[in-house]
Amino acid sequence: MKKDDTLKAVSVVNKSNIGLNLSELTNCIKVFVLDSEGLSKKMLNQMLYAVSEKIGITETPVLLYPVDYAKDQSIRFEKTYDLWILELKYIDDYFTYVNRLLRFI
User: Which residues have C-beta within 8 Å of that of residue 95, sequence separation ≥ 6?
Assistant: First the structure.
């Protein structure tokens, strides 16, 4: 979503089958607010409506980041999530450490 040639928010649509729905994370619309100044709740709702209409869904969860934007705009939310990013180049060192740690248990 752009306003006056400034990127305000990015949306990502994830669609999966009913069997692969991990706490609504794999079948939802994710919205990343990059610049909240001038981005009203009404504008966000219009964007979500347009995206929903384009992909042909009537009801879907929306994951919104950052939570401060939701609070500032008085957008009701049910849950918050923590994001964990794993740098896989260190995974071997991690498992070596865990194996060493658990060897005595």
Answer: none
In the predicted model, residues of the chain with pLDDT beneath 50 are none
Indicate whether 35 belongs to any domain: yes
Asked if residues 34 and 9 have their Cβ atoms less than 8 Å apart, the reply is yes
Number of domains observed in the structure of the chain: 1
- Please answer whether residues 15 and 55 qualify as being in contact, where contact means their C-beta atoms are separated by less than 8 angstroms: yes
Residue 64 falls inside a structural domain: yes
Q: What range defines the domain where residue 71 resides?
A: 2-79
Phi/psi for 63 (5° steps) reads -100, 125
* 101 assigned to some structural domain: no
**Tell me, what's the pLDDT at 68?**
95
Going by their DSSP bridges, the two strands 62-65 and 28-33 should be labelled as parallel
Burial class (CB within 10 angstroms; exposed 0-12, middle 13-18, buried 19+) of 24? middle
Predicted TM-score of the model (pTM): 0.73
